[in-house]
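User: quick one, sequence for these tokens?
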């Protein structure tokens, strides 16, 4: 179920265009605050790394990555990356590049990053070894 971020009214539209407004309060619907990718704690308040920065999060914009956040019957965001994957983001590599979303119930192996310290020391020693 789609709801307006401002007044909580149910939105019956299948697709939301830039000009669509809430019938109850008149606020724009295609806004960051209604988007699945919106996350205050992230850079530009967006989980999608390729999205252009938007200054006014409550105003209509032209973001290509917009997906309307849906709320389930208990009032929890469904498909919201900031709430579902916020804790797991670093360890499991969410979100996927290019705005792709993981399949429902899918898990990914933890992403491990090597510091490269050992390789750097080895290269340094070989470069400057005494002859």
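Assistant:
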């Amino acid at each position: 179920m789609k709801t307006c971020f401002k007044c909580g009214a149910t939105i019956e539209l299948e697709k939301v265009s830039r000009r669509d407004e809430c019938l109850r309060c008149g606020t724009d619907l295609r806004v960051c605050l209604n988007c699945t990718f919106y996350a205050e704690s992230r850079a530009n308040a967006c989980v999608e790394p390729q999205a252009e920065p938007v200054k006014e999060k409550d105003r209509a914009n032209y973001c290509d990555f917009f997906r309307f956040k849906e709320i389930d019957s208990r009032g929890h965001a469904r498909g919201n990356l900031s709430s579902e994957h916020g804790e797991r983001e670093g360890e499991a590599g969410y979100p996927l590049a290019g705005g792709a979303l993981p399949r429902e119930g899918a898990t990914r192996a933890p992403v491990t990053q090597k510091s490269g310290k050992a390789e750097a020391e080895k290269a340094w020693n070989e470069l400057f070894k005494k002859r």
